[in-house]
Amino acid sequence: MLKPKLIVDGKRLDGRAFDELRPIKIEADVLKRADGSCYIEMGKNKVLAAVYGPRELHPRHLQDPSKAIIRYRYNMAAFSVEERRRPGPDRRSIEISKVSKEVFEAVIMKELFPRSAIDIFVEVLQADAGSRAAGINAASVALIDAGIPVKGIVTSVAVAKVDGQLVLDPMKEEDYYGEADLPIAFLIRNGKIESITLLQMDGRMTKDEIKRVIELAKKGVMEIYRLQRDAIMRKFMVEEDEG
Ligand code: ADP
User: Fold this and answer.
1) How far apart are CA 243 and CA 241, in angstroms?
2) Residue of 2, 6, 94, 123 with fewest CB within 10 Å of its CB?
């Protein structure tokens, strides 16, 4: 198919400015059976995260006597994309699960829970580019909802290059037809960006563009972070009211 024009009259196809996120909704504690959970919408992405643990890890030979084992499963529902996806893990979801697991290994205080497992499940109900970022954002809230000690909130977004222009939080057309796509996650502690916990890229960008991408992503994640924090606050305030 011919590549459509992605920027028309200085605006993106969905009318957004270059540095504008898609609308975001975040709700914590949406699943009763999980220890922690979160539902997020980032544009057309709809993603659920469920956290179980810390709980004793079986079989026992997998246990680590010095810390908890973190497991992360990113899964796309068969109905999450236009063409029905074959259910089950594929190369892409195995890769996303691995890099996302590494994000949370750096953030969870896992030394507090020897011989345990902490399981993070991310189910993508509807995907529209940026689903790994949405999964990480939901998982971070779900971990806090589960009461698991963490070093801070992890917040993720992608930046793309489309028609030579850097744009925040690309949707599917921008991801598909763009020249480059760079998902990134930051650890945010006491309202300040502390470190980068995930950085991936496909396509091509100059060194200067990468610097600008990181600045654009920082602006985006601070907005998402405030919504994650609000979702956590809302949950605890409701509990207080009910009590
Ligand atoms: P992310 O969702 O994190 O941006 P990708 O860049 O790999 O991850 O994928 C971009 C988008 O492409 C997905 O969000 C989804 O909309 C679409 N996509 C990914 N895998 C498939 C698939 N197997 N079939 C159809 N569409 C897919």
Assistant:
1) 5
2) 2
